[in-house]
């Protein structure tokens, strides 16, 4: 399928199955609210959520949906929350730690990927940052290659790239290090050794 650029956003999303990573982050929460409120004909939104602090993915989603951000949807379109399908996954795990059945379901049904999971903290370990920001993006691309009906992949990236530049142009900047090698190093070395490299 080829996207039609003349379509309105609600028309484009009508009948689509979206995979959203980073669903519990700021941008993810806003994306969920905006799509459910303005694109009423979206088919479903799969949300990759990590179980955390003793809460299951369903419990975490329930907690999120009680935020003031979703008050209007709760009042006007509470049935729209039924389109949200939480899936257990973790951006720090290889392949997002998806179960085989969840992975297959996504391959069969997803038409749009919005990859928003990332670590934007500057004090994370190098290994954590590489796994979350680099390997997770690679793994989403690998998953996307297997999807049968994929229309679009959107990558939400941090604004804090190339902060050493006084003017950031609309271009792809050369990388200081090869991302493939960085993943291999992060997977091969223990966290303590990587932390020594980080300090240097």
UniProtKB/TrEMBL annotation:
InterPro entries for this protein: FAR, FAR_NAD-bd, NAD(P)-bd_dom_sf
Domain of life: Eukaryota
Catalytic reaction annotation: a long-chain fatty acyl-CoA + 2 NADPH + 2 H(+) = a long-chain primary fatty alcohol + 2 NADP(+) + CoA
Pfam families referenced in this protein's UniProt entry, alphabetically: NAD_binding_4
Any one of the GO CC terms: peroxisome
GO biological process, one term: long-chain fatty-acyl-CoA metabolic process
Keyword NADP: yes
UniProt keyword terms in alphabetical order: Lipid biosynthesis, Lipid metabolism, NADP, Oxidoreductase
EC number, UniProt record: 1.2.1.84
Domain Thioester reductase (TE), chain residue ranges per copy: 20-180
The keyword Lipid biosynthesis is assigned to this record: yes
GO molecular function, one term: alcohol-forming long-chain fatty acyl-CoA reductase activity
Family membership noted in the UniProt record: Belongs to the fatty acyl-CoA reductase family.
Functional summary from the UniProt entry: Catalyzes the reduction of fatty acyl-CoA to fatty alcohols.
Classification via PANTHER family: FATTY ACYL-COA REDUCTASE, MALE STERILITY PROTEIN 2-RELATED
Protein name per the record: Fatty acyl-CoA reductase
Organism for this UniProt entry: Cardiocondyla obscurior
Organism taxonomic ancestry: Eukaryota, Metazoa, Ecdysozoa, Arthropoda, Hexapoda
């Amino acid at each position: 399928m080829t996207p039609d650029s003349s379509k309105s956003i609600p028309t484009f999303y009508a009948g689509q199955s979206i995979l959203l990573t980073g669903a519990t982050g700021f941008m993810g929460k806003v994306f969920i609210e905006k799509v459910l409120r303005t694109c009423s004909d979206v088919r479903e939104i799969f949300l990759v959520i990590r179980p955390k602090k003793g809460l299951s993915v369903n419990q975490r989603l329930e907690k999120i949906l009680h935020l003031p951000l979703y008050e209007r949807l709760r009042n006007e379109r509470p049935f729209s929350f039924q389109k949200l399908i939480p899936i257990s996954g973790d951006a720090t795990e290889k392949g997002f730690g998806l179960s085989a059945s969840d992975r297959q379901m996504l391959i069969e049904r997803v038409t749009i990927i919005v990859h928003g999971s990332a670590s934007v903290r500057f004090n994370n370990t190098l290994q954590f940052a590489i796994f979350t920001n680099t390997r997770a993006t690679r793994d989403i691309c690998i998953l996307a290659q297997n999807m049968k009906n994929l229309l679009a992949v959107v990558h939400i990236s941090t604004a804090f790239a190339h902060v050493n530049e006084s003017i950031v142009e609309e271009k792809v900047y050369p990388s200081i290090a090869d991302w493939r090698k960085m993943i291999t190093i992060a997977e091969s070395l223990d966290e303590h050794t990587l932390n020594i490299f980080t300090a240097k």
